[in-house]
Backbone:
């Protein structure tokens, strides 16, 4: 490949054709400020903060959307450029509220950071706020259009990455705003609550529905027996809020912090991920060996199940009926644990810590989420919310000694931790499906073909001469083409191209969930993924069916996978939903 040679601020640099000036500058240690640009998205130069000068050009160019050229000489910073950027920022701030102290992004806001870097202490333009109402119609995310800077990230994510089209620009000129399509509420829109809009928003215009006060109220004065569970990917992301590198594992510190906050029992969603594999894996083996509906499709991701019920209801028969690990642990906490600990279920309060905003929707999505006789999970909070709670509690997270989870619903295998990464559910399921079919354990439990960041992956697994074809998709916009491939085979009367499919709504899987620490890029996602694979590799048991507490819960309480009791507590059903509520 012929490289492009150019100069940035007099420094020679060689880059691949098509590289933007913005990214070329990074290679020589030059940071060009930006607000609308995000590495997940095609640049569209909305904000104008990244302007630079190029020798021979009569105008300033936007670095994010301008590709380099041979012999190009770029100036990224001079007094005139800084003045233009400051003016752009001042204009944005003239239409932006000054309530930083009450904003959930205070201290972690890209606009606030730029204002500080440019030393903006006052704005020379008249303040022009529009007094737009907040949209609090969903339990998952809140839209505050008053704070929107019209960067367009949320709309591009929703439309291009996720393929949902719940958000768009409405109005023209100064009246332009981001809102749900057709100007309905988020709850009435096609929104699947994945939260990728909030994860990509540079300011406080879209954020998770904060429910930490409900948790503090439950913890106060011992009024409730409070139980908490943490999802696999939380442990490799929470540290980012305390200055650690992405991907560092902080499981033991999380357990310790949650106990200090006052929880009576600390469990791990990895345990119920193992339980999910026993149910979902057994369901797949039954379908595969007895002629059931194939392909079987995983159902752990609530944003994906919401999408399926709205956009792909023809696949409802293909969906595994197994609940997500979050819901399975909630059901087990308010039945098995309550029974073992001799606690009245009505006095229990179950909290889940998830990387996902859609989990807030899932806890009350239908009557199956009250299989214990009460709502199985009372509150679901995100990784970001937990980080704030730890800080509010005055806990020095960096100096916490590691502790263990309560073993009853806290012991897990390496397979359980893989649920946090794209391909992980499939890999965990195949490890146990192999055993369930052959009654033998795999010599090598690593399924490398289902790993990686490709949007759609496929593989053929040999189970003692029987070929099992699998597919994995992550990032919602990649799913429809996979579903169409299956539909086409069905219309032609051909055999299904796949037997088992895993789908995760967010890029990279749960490690890139809408409730994870802000600022995720593929570089950060890969570090989080590596952390989860490391956790799996160091586990004593790496298959769900080898988890001794899983064996115990079936022996003591559930009977066997797919039993009547298991179906009552651990399984659900689906129904077609309208894309727009009317």
Residues:
């Amino acid at each position: 490949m012929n490289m492009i040679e150019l100069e940035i601020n007099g420094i020679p640099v060689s880059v691949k054709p098509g590289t933007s000036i913005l990214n070329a500058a990074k290679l020589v240690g030059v940071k060009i400020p930006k607000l609308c640009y995000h590495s997940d998205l095609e640049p569209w130069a909305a904000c104008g903060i990244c302007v630079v000068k190029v020798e021979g050009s009569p105008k300033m160019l936007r670095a994010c959307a301008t590709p380099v050229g041979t012999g190009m000489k770029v100036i990224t910073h001079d007094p005139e450029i800084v003045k233009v950027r400051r003016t752009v920022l001042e204009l944005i701030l003239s239409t932006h509220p000054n309530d930083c102290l009450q904003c959930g992004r205070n201290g972690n806001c890209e606009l606030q950071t730029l204002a500080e870097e440019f030393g903006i202490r006052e704005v020379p333009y008249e303040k022009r706020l529009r007094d737009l109402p907040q949209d609090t119609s969903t339990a998952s995310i809140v839209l505050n259009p008053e704070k929107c800077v019209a960067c367009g990230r949320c709309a591009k994510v929703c439309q291009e990455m996720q393929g949902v089209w719940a958000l768009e620009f409405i109005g023209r000129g100064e009246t332009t705003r981001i809102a749900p399509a057709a100007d309905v509420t988020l709850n009435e829109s096609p929104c699947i609550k994945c939260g990728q809009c909030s994860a990509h928003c540079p300011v406080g215009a879209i954020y998770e529905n904060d429910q930490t006060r409900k948790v503090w109220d439950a913890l106060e004065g011992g009024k409730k027996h409070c139980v908490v569970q943490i999802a696999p990917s939380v442990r490799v992301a929470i540290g980012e809020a305390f200055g650690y590198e992405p991907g560092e594992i902080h499981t033991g510190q999380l357990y310790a912090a949650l106990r200090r906050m006052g929880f009576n029992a600390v469990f791990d969603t990895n345990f119920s991920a193992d339980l999910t594999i026993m149910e979902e894996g057994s369901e797949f083996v039954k379908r595969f060996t007895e002629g059931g509906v194939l392909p079987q499709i995983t159902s752990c991701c609530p944003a994906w199940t919401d999408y399926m019920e709205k956009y792909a209801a023809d696949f409802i028969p293909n969906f595994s009926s197994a609940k997500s690990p979050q819901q399975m642990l909630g059901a087990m906490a308010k039945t098995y644990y309550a029974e073992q600990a001799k606690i009245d279920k009505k006095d229990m309060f179950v909290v889940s810590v998830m990387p996902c905003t859609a989990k807030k929707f899932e806890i009350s999505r239908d009557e199956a989420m009250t299989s214990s006789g009460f709502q199985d999970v009372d509150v679901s909070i995100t990784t970001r919310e937990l980080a704030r709670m730890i800080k509010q509690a005055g806990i020095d997270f960096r100096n916490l000694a590691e502790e263990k989870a309560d073993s009853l619903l806290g012991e897990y295998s390496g397979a359980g931790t893989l649920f946090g990464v794209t391909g992980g559910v499939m890999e965990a399921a195949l490890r146990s499906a192999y055993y369930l079919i052959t009654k033998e354990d795999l010599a090598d439990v690593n399924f490398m073909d289902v790993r990686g960041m490709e949007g759609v992956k496929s593989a053929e697994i040999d189970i003692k001469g029987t070929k099992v074809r699998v597919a994995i998709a992550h990032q919602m916009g990649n799913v429809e083409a996979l579903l169409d491939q299956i539909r086409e085979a069905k219309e032609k009367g051909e055999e299904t191209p796949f037997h088992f499919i895993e789908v995760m709504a967010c890029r990279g899987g749960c490690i890139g969930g809408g409730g994870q620490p802000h600022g995720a890029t593929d570089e950060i996602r890969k570090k989080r993924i590596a952390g989860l694979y490391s956790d799996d590799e160091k586990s004593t048991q790496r298959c769900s069916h080898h988890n001794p507490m899983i064996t115990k819960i079936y022996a003591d309480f559930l009977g066997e996978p797919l039993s009547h009791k298991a179906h009552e507590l651990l399984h659900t059903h689906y129904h077609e939903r309208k894309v727009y509520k009317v």
Q: What stands out?
A: The mean pLDDT is 96.
